[in-house]
Amino acid sequence: MRVLSAAAALLLVGGAASQDCPTTFTESMSLEDGSISLKYAVVGDVLCVEMTSGNPGWVGFAVSPTGRMEDSVAMIGLPDAGTVQKYALKSGNPRITAMPAESQTLMSTDVTQEEDGTTTVKWAKFMSEEGEPEILANGKNTFLYAVGKNNEPGYHAVRNPFSLDFKGMGEGASPAPTPAGSGDSESIPPPIKTVAPTSDGTRAEPPAPPAPTPPPNRASISSKIGTMILGAAAVAIWGGL
């Protein structure tokens, strides 16, 4: 997987190279006992996410190889500000800071909040970017989800790790091989006929295989057995003389 620099990612975000997320997601999962819905898709080298929380407050999703906040990159939607941005999570103080403008490479961002407090955040992110934890197209990824106590940036009301494997979801991915004997097996192709060139440059057809020898009939077998017996008798008589 290619690693994008911040400058290259910004060029792709602003140009036609950025890839559109699907309007309808086919992959989803429930988090936090069903109070959080996560929908996702992999389009080429881009991860598309739609995350909905039934609780009023900011909504965050972090790429975290260790399952902890330290050294993670989070995508956080702030309903009041109407922004979805990338934040660096550190172990020091402050623990969370907005990444610089050149690193704000998210695409298709949106955050909405209903009257009942239901908050939905959407974004798309390149899976591999310079200086950030890589999202694996094939293999286990560890992420964090978090929801704020309210819309103000601050301590989360809930935060937990979870894992996903996007194997086979990327554009152009090869389907998994079908197990032997499963009914969808491939037919065996016929052998290739090899034709050798002749001295004048033309290709001669290979000689036809010899016709099979017919099995001997019963009369022939009986005759041969009789001949063998007579021959044996003659040898015995010859030896006795």
Short description:
With 241 residues, the chain is of the alpha+beta class.
Give an overview of the whole structure.
This protein is of the alpha+beta class. The protein has 2 helices and 11 strands, in the order H-E-E-E-E-E-E-E-E-E-E-E-H. It has helices spanning 6-14, 218-240, and strands at residues 27-31, 36-43, 46-53, 59-63, 72-78, 83-89, 96-98, 107-113, 119-126, 140-148, 156-165. The chain has a 6-stranded antiparallel beta sheet with strand order 7-6-5-4-10-11, with no helix packed on it. It is globular, with a radius of gyration of 37 Å. 23% of the residues are buried.
Numbering strands along the chain, what is their spatial order in the largest sheet? 7-6-5-4-10-11
What is the alpha-carbon Rg in Å?
37 Å
Q: Which runs of at least 5 residues are low in confidence (pLDDT < 50)?
A: 9-18, 172-199, 218-241
Shape: globular
Number of strands: 11
Order of helices and strands: HEEEEEEEEEEEH
Q: What is the oligomer described by this structure?
A: single chain
What's the pLDDT, averaged over the residues? Answer: 75
Termini separation comes to 95 Å
Task: Give the helix proportion (percent range).
Answer: 10-25%
SS strand fraction:
25-35%
Largest sheet: 6 strands, antiparallel
Number of DSSP helical runs: 2
- Which structural class should the secondary elements be placed in? alpha+beta
